[in-house]
Amino acid sequence: WARFLQIVGGATVVTVGTLGVFYYATQKDRTPGVQLPHDPSKKTLVVLGSGWGATSLLKSVDTSDYNVIVISPKNYFLFTPLLPSVAVGTLNPRSIIQPTRYVTRHKARQVSVIEASATEVDPVAKTVKFEDTSEIQGLVSTTTVNYDYLVFAVGAEVQTFNIPGVKEHACFMKELEDAEKMQRRFLDCLESAAFPGQTQEEVDRLLHMVVVGGGPTGIEVSGEIHDFLEEDLRSWYPELANNVKITLVEALPSVLPMFSKQLIDYTESTFKEASIDILTKTMVKEIKEKSVVLQRPDKSIVEVPCGLVIWAAGNKLRKVTQDLMAKLPQAQTNRRGITVDEHLRMAGTDGSIFAIGDCSATSYAPTAQVASQQGAYLARIFAQIAKRDNLEARLRELQSAPQAEETAAEVTSVTKQLAKAEKLRPFQYSHQGSLAYIGSDKAIADLPFFNGNLATGGVATFLFWRSAYLSTLFSLRNRTLVATDWIKVKLFGRDVSRE
Ligand code: FAD
Ligand code: NAI
Q: ipTM higher than 0.85?
């Protein structure tokens, strides 16, 4: 009995202790302290965007050095890697977003968060014009702000190649509302297929899901739809489940060109087992209300009936990015995005504009990993710039003061420190590996291993994928919500009610 009570007592102490630490951490996050007000003597740092690049910068930047203003049409950060899981109801949409104010309210100095879209940047006058594009607007909805430094981190938008019908009939997978729309439409297809008296041909059409693009987004969405089908729809729509068909269409000869050959083969065989059809060397030419028009490898055209098309065919630059680049035609000639130097400063400017993430054109793939490392790098650069500015001001002060022995010594010391502060380290990307979920509780990973690459796929990689993303989530709140959603789905399955 004594031993038993000892074990129970120990376990209780550990549980209560853990809960106490957890409670303390959550309450600390919920009660931000008093912040310094904006200081007119400090430089203004304007950040455009609240995605991977911008949020990573905001997390690390020392706001005691700057007056920071964030402008973004979304007042939150979206954890894109888990977006496909929202589209099938594995995760709650709110679990993968983090309000920007939850980050900025913890900074030393106040940060202005403005929910608006930047519409124009003037690199000569150093201004940004922005507009409230939300549903509800006040008396003022357009204005301009001056900047000393601008971080351009507006990401990219969905590339449609102006293919007819894409915007009108397909679902994208880029924003939170895209995933919610896909979930609604997918369930609508099922309910319409269940409507009494539907012909078999119409049932087959409604239940044919076409995913366009064999990049990681298309692969992950196809895998998630498959899981939803196998784990839930078979139970709740037994009469329809066998008619659900998933087709992935890719223009190139293979899916996932950025992964190693072994993992491409593994994905293709996993999809085959899961009855997901992959059509490679096949290009979507048009999307109609009830069908997709495909060009097959032999160039013949075929119209395939379907209920839902998910468009995941890559990125293109936003208009605000294209307009800014057009103002610097000599230096900005790369159609993929903003050309930057090794310190991420926009080419053709005086060094006051920095571009990071998907809107910039670098030698790296447009990924969250790159954008977040660039954001963290810029936070360090801004700290160094502030230090340099302070040293320059001190030097000016000393040089204008009457010459004394101590002053001369300090001038030498400050000059030395200044020379050091002026040397900015170039940005260096450290690749942590590529990961993708492929459905059926399997994931693939290309990981740097010593000087080579470790390619792995399967259920263990899926557990690694989950733990990697759980730890990458920006806050304890998100981690708790996502982990709870995963447990809820394991226990109760996904919700099939249509909002
Ligand atoms: P974003 O994160 O897109 O942020 C851009 C921000 O700018 C947004 O807040 C937007 O609201 C804002 N904005 C837009 N227009 C304006 C404007 N006019 N003015 C001001 N602000 C504006 N990468 C990985 O490394 N690993 C993954 O697993 C992964 N999974 C992904 C899954 C999906 C479904 C998708 C779509 C992408 C995925 N990516 C992944 C890619 C990754 O999301 C992007 O590379 C990353 O978001 C780029 O960061 P960013 O800061 O440049 O842009
Ligand atoms: P992507 O650009 O990687 O892939 C799009 C695919 O669509 C291409 O393979 C292209 O050939 C195909 N395509 C284009 N037009 C087509 C048409 N008309 N018909 C048929 N196929 C067509 O785009 P994706 O997957 O959205 O990824 C964008 C970026 O985000 C990439 O850099 C990617 O690495 C990153 N990302 C990374 C993830 C991960 O690491 N797990 C997950 C999702 C995205």
A: yes
